[in-house]
Amino acid sequence: MGVVRVMNADGVSRHPSAARLEDELRWVQNKLFDVGSLLATAPGQTFTNMPQVAARDVTRLEKLIDHCQKDLTPLKEFILPGGGKVSGFLHQARTVCRRAERLCVALSKTEPVDPAIITFINRLSDALFVLARWVSKTQGEPEFLWERDVPKKAK
To answer: What CATH number is attached to the domain comprising 19?
Structure first.
């Protein structure tokens, strides 16, 4: 998230979408710190001002997804990660987020993990994908579609 924010900082003065992205990514980065704190806390242990990940956080991600998708055309092919720097790093963040989701699910099989955390991480990876597409669209970056390798017919 930090790398995406650094890359996005150059566009904040040129694109209103970059300013919106900065606000959202700052919030996400703080929520991920909360997630890390909660996962690092021993099961059953609590402390004063303990952070939370709640349904409202998932709802915020879903509203962000809905907002961004209004500007996007529906996909007919897979997207190849890349395009511009910001969208490329958002795609990379999405893959890291998916890995974190798998690790949280695995952890939940050995100790209690708040289901809200797993839901949040799942929706975050979806949001990062949509944000990557939205950045490409709103900041004029290219978006590369997967091209099927169609075998040539014999003559």
So the answer is: 1.20.1200.10
150 located within any domain: no
Two tokens at 30?
């703080």
DSSP state of 72: S
- Give the C-alpha separation, 3 to 6, whole Å: 5
**C-alpha angle with apex 1: 75 to 117, nearest 5 degrees?**
80
- pTM of the entire predicted model: 0.89
- Write the pLDDT tens digit of every residue in 89-134: 999 999 999 999 999 999 999 999 999 999 999 999 999 999 999 9
Which amino acid appears at position 101 of this protein? E
Whether 116 maps to a domain, the answer reads: yes
Closest CA to 127 of 28, 32, 23: 28
Average of per-residue pLDDT values in the chain: 91
